[in-house]
Amino acid sequence: MRCLLIFSLLLPIYLFSQEDDSLKIVELTKDLEIAKEDTSKVNILNELANEFIGLDNEKGLNYSNNALILAKKLNFSTGISKAYYNVGKCFYYEYEFDSIIHYYNISKEINKQKENLPTGASYELLMGLVYQIQSDYSLAIYHYKEALNLYTSLNDQEKSAYCHNNLGVAYGNLGDYQKALNNYFLSLEINEEIGNLSMVAKTLANIGGIYEDQEKFENALEYYKKAILIASNINSKQIIADTYRNIGGIYSQKEKFDSTLSVYNKSLELYKELNDIRGLVVLYNLFGQTYNAKDWNTFPDYLNIAYEYYKKSLEINNREISEIEEKIVSYQGIADVYTNKNKFNKAIPYLNKAISMAKEIESLDNVQKCHKALSQAYAGVGNFQLAYENYVLYKNWSDTLKSDENVELLTQMSMQYEFDKQQKEQEFYQAQKDLEYQQKQQRDRLIRAFIIAVLIIVSGFSVQVLRSYQRKKKDNILLAHQNEEIEKQKEEITDSIRYAKRIQTAILPSDDWANCHLPEHFILFRPRDIVSGDYYWMNKIDNKVILVAADCTGHGVPGAFMSMLGVSFLNEIVNKNNTVQPSLILNQLRDQVKRTLDQTGKEGEAKDGMDIAICVINFDTMLLEYAGAYNPLYLFRNGELLETKGDKMPIGIYIREKDSFTNHEIQLEKGDTFYIFSDGYADQFGGPNGGKFKSRPFKELLAKIQHNSMLEQWEILESTIDDWRGDIDQIDDMIILGVRV
Questions:
Q1: What proportion of the chain, given as a percentage, has pLDDT over 90?
Q2: Of all helices (H) and strands (E), which one includes residue 626?
């Protein structure tokens, strides 16, 4: 069981106290108040942005955007480049990688023109980190090397050492251990020289990781212990947590599972204290692998514990960071659990998901493993054709993954064969003639035996067929009766669900109400099943119109129950309590959901809830208030997208819950168009490669159709998603509300 090295995946952390940080922010804020509208103010804004990024990304993004606006006004290219870098870094901490790449391309073009080396180097390093997280190690290495060249020309030893460390991680993930160690030791030498103890500890731990991958466990433990010693001296809990996790991996490979769990629990406490989401995602997968490897034949409950850990890792990953490599681990782990329980039919979908993702990131080793596991699973359900096909694919991938050493050995064997053939050609020719005669004699004997065996089998089979035919006639009569009962039950259930749809439709706002109280608008509402887990809600209190688009946990009937619960609560909160501020509505809605579903945060309880966006519009003052639980607000003004993000917490129980949702105020202008929606549209699979539609194409589509009427926009959105999905079924409910003022 291999431990993943993550020490390089954080931007450099400088060990200043919070008091020092606060003091610097106070000083910069005072400087900003008296600064003139010149390049010095741009620099101050960029410095303030840099201080807040990673601590309060919203403030960091605001300062970055203000710096960008002023720098463009002054045509200050260095300030523009630095501001774009800070914007990209904000998105890095929010795991919005498409946005980072967009701003990187803009910044790089500016750097080409003005040779702003420090910002250019920082962005190359940031891009390396982005591709590292996305498991595209070749591109990560390219950007790390670009950054290293720039930092070397700037004589920046600290950043050069950091680049060497990250190159070590990337090469290690590609299996090039010698290049990985070369870069780690270069990083270690520089960091020891400049006294950067934090990076010394990280690099020592990463060296230990390479030795662990080579199964040199004693060497690995030696370097891990050195790393923990230095990290303890500088009180770096992050490094200690990561290193304990890797030590647990060694114990696991030695099948000392109790020691593994003990060390993992130490790591878990630190990750929770640090609120390290990615660390928790990786560690929960490792807990799952450990319990899956323990003696579950004696203690079957270990498999259930393993399943819960994989599920927990996947749930956090999907909601927070969407890291493909760890999703693959979770899917494979869940499939292993079902396979060990002999529930092969449940293992198959998870293995197919893992294969799809592994191909997406070109993780050939995982593709190979999944095909082997699929072969076993299909054999378990009796589908021997698919079992055989997957085994062939497994063998093909095995051949593809042969090392250069094996290829060289094959070449040597081929040359030796040619030599031997020339030396022994006559001897081989005679032996072949003798062999052909012996084979002919044996073939004749086999044919006679085969004919006799076939006659016996056919006779026995005929008797068996006759008996089976008589038995099957009786079974068919019984089966026909059972089918009638099943069809009758199915029809009754479907009728009930259709009636539920009538109820759900009745509680949704009518078209007449929307046409009466809203300006030009559209409502795209497409349930995946008969009833929907997505819903929309509208109301008017005094001169304020409230619009809601929500996505409940689940689809179909379970989702519909949640949606009707949400509508009921909104009616009570807005109409009875007279609450019209979006953030307060969400706060009260969250309290109602948690109380009704009895959510207390206990282990194993249901985490049902909803993601939601709420807009309150005063058409007299043209003021729009917005608050969101994950779901954002898109506003287009003069063709430009102004995106306002929701808080990263749902309506329901959540471990990182804040006291209140954020209330945003936006002054509307005539001609503005805004949208609230669920994730169903962007998550729909389709296209030439069967992938998701995704958020960025969705934004681009909305931008492209801004000149169209709202009715035409609705028609374009409908036809686009139908063309995209083709023959693929709709996978989720969809809701999009669009309004033009």
A1: 20
A2: strand 623-629
- E strands, 399-558, are 521-526, 534-541, 544-552
Q: Is 456 exposed, middle or buried (0-12, 13-18, 19+ CB in 10 A)?
A: exposed
Of 44, 127, 52, the closest CA to residue 85 belongs to: 127
Q: Which long-range contacts (CB under 8 A, 24 or more apart) does 253-261 make?
A: 253/1, 253/212, 253/215, 253/217, 254/217, 255/293, 257/290, 257/293, 257/294, 260/290, 261/287, 261/290
- For residues 563 and 552, the answer to whether their CB atoms sit within 8 Å is yes
* C-alpha closest to that of 47 among 28, 27, 20, 31: 28
Of the three residues 48, 68, 96, the one that is the final residue of a domain is: 96
Q: Are the beta carbons of 300 and 328 closer than 8 angstroms?
A: no
Residues 194, 187: Cα–Cα separation, whole Å: 11
Which helix (H) or strand (E) segment holds residue 565: the answer is: helix 556-570
56 belongs to a structural domain: yes
Map tokens 């035919």 to a residue: 469
Q: 320 vs 56, 518, 589, 630, 683, CA distance in Å?
A: 17, 35, 22, 10, 16
Distance from first CA to last CA of the chain, Å, rounded? 57
- Span 187-195, average pLDDT: 91
Which has the closest alpha carbon to 551: 559, 541, 540?
559
Distance CA 241, CA 262 (A): 13
* Crossing angle for the helix pair 277-293 and 237-253, to the nearest 10 degrees: 20
pTM listed for this prediction: 0.43
d(CA 562, CA 139): 44
Q: Which amino acid is at 527?
A: P
Domain-embedded: residue 299: no
Question: Count of domains in the chain?
Answer: 2
Burial label, 272 (beta-carbon count in 10 A; 0-12, 13-18, 19+): middle
CATH number of the domain that residue 722 is part of = 3.60.40.10
Q: Is residue 217 part of a domain?
A: no
The boundaries of the domain holding residue 638 are 512-740
Residue type, 299: F
For 233, residues 6+ apart whose C-beta sits below 8 A from its C-beta are 197
Grouping H, G, I as helix, E, B as strand and the rest as coil, residue 437 is: helix
Instruction: Evaluate whether residue 716 is within a structural domain.
Output: yes
Contact call for residues 77 and 106 (beta carbons, < 8 A) = no
Q: Which residue among 40, 74, 96 closes a domain?
A: 96
Contact between 316 and 360 under an 8 Å Cβ cutoff? The reply is no
Residues linked to residue 739 through DSSP beta bridges, in sequence order: 521, 674
What are 623-646's pLDDT values in tens digits? Answer: 999 999 999 999 999 989 999 999
**Amino acid at site 393:** L
Alpha-helix runs per DSSP H in 401-424: 404-423
Tens digit of each residue's pLDDT (9 = 90 or more) over 392-451: 888 777 766 554 334 333 333 333 344 344 444 445 555 555 556 566 566 666 666 656
CB 321 within 8 A of CB 278: yes
CB 615 within 8 A of CB 582: yes
Helix (H, G, I), strand (E, B) or coil at 630: coil
